[in-house]
Amino acid sequence: MAKKRELKNLISNGFLSQIKWGESYTSLFLGAVVVVVALVLVFSFIKSRNAQTGQTGSTSNEQTANKLPETYTVKQGDNLWTVAEKLYGSGYNWVDLAKANKLQNPGLLYIGAKLSVPNVAPKTPTAQNNTLQQTNPITGTSYTVVKGDYLWTIALRAYGDGYKWVTVAKANNLKNPDIIHPGNVLKLPR
Length: 190
What we know:
Elements (H helix, E strand, L loop, with lengths): L1 H12 L1 H4 L4 H31 L17 E3 L6 H9 L5 H7 L13 E3 L14 H5 L6 E3 L6 H9 L5 H7 L13 E3 L3
Antiparallel strand pairs: 1-2, 3-4
Helix pairs in contact: 4-5, 7-8
């Protein structure tokens, strides 16, 4: 009976109040507990962040194709370019993701959708010799569209870089850059 009363007193008065430590030792002990908890939280955050991005202590460019997950779940703010950067370390692999998932509109992804991840090597951009620009260049600050033209080929001929089609589209306030008609006069910013 006396032991039960002693245990009740120990529990009701609190464990730390029963230990006859000075104030400095109590503060030291509680400080150490706070540091340990903070370290555990930091390490678990780092571990979850690396697991979320698919990294295991190496940069995403070092990630090889054989370490890829089989599927990827689309998150808010994802597009094929950013997903390819996360998985392959190169956004240029968005084409592989679109092809493997038979996406009719690669610009439209739904949150929560599962994408199959093809086991391909990361793509890197390469400089190519542009024969179209060399044989039929556009040198002026404007261009009249002819049948069969696309913004890509116009930018390739004018700048030597097809990706500059965006610059041409913005300079001409094109709402739909896929639609240009023969006879349209486009400004080509230089």
